[in-house]
Every structure is written in C-alpha cells, then in structure tokens.
Design goal:
Elements (H helix, E strand, L loop, with lengths): L7 H16 L14 H31 L4 H12 L2
Amino acid sequence: MKRHFSLLQLSRDHHPALIAAQICKRGSPAYLGLPTLPAEKLSYIRSFWKDELYEHFKIEEEILIPEIAGKNDELDKITSNVIEGT
C-alpha cells in the first residue's frame, strides 16, 4: 500500500516492533541472534521500548492521532481507546 511520505518512518517502525512482540512469546524460536532466555528477552524489550518504541508511540499519540481525528468514524473508534487511555 502506498503511504504518504510523512508516514514512511512510522510504518517502517512497525516491523521491528512485531519481531520484538514475537520473541516475547514463550517458546519462540531463535531469530537473528535475538535473545531466547526470559531474562534476556526482558532486558531486550526494556531497551527496545526506551530506545525505539516510546518515541514512536509519542509521535502517534501527539501528532498522528490528533491529525486524523474526526476524519473517519472507524479510525475515531480505534483511536478513542488511545485518547481515553484504555
């Protein structure tokens, strides 16, 4: 799907986040040298959150969501959970 150039980096951020989510699963297979032991996974996820995800979510919450608010009922329904904190 074609994305507006201003959304490209946010879109690209999702792939490593999906990989991080997958390694959190119990018994997940080794992948590209990522941690496999629970304590190592926890450390990795904490660093990943601090170094990458926090800023990503901040941009989505402070810039993207307000920009799209009121333009599409379905998107408003989805983003209302973020705005309301649920």
